[in-house]
Amino acid sequence: MAGASLGARFYRQIKRHPGIIPMIGLICLGMGSAALYLLRLALRSPDVCWDRKNNPEPWNRLSPNDQYKVPLDGSRVALHPLISWSWHPQLPY
Question: CB of 58 within 8 A of CB of 49?
């Protein structure tokens, strides 16, 4: 057992307990999905700037049809009816 590699021990565990195969598959699926989501956020988001020298302000090249994260007309964002600010003595605005 001391000389067995990690892959050999993993294979023996799967052979002894075949019920963990779906769990391993779901864990791999979740990790892969999270990695792809982070990659999408890093490459497609206007908030991330990888090239500061040639494009120091990437948010300026957005067209008026692009979706922004904040309202630009100065209006307040409508709160969800279940969210209450009653615990806070003053609204954050």
Answer: yes
**How far from 26 is each of 11, 32, 51, 52, 75, CA to CA, in Å?**
18, 10, 36, 38, 43
Closest CA to 12 of 27, 1, 26: 1
Q: Which tokens sit at 32?
A: 């892969």
Long-range contacts of 52-61 (CB under 8 A, 24+ apart): none
| N-to-C CA span, the chain | 63
Quote the tokens at residue 84.
């209450």
* Residue 80 token pair: 């969800």
Per-residue pLDDT of 8-66, as tens digits, reads: 998 999 999 999 999 999 999 999 999 999 999 888 876 677 777 777 676 677 777 77
Contact 76, 70 (CB under 8 A): no
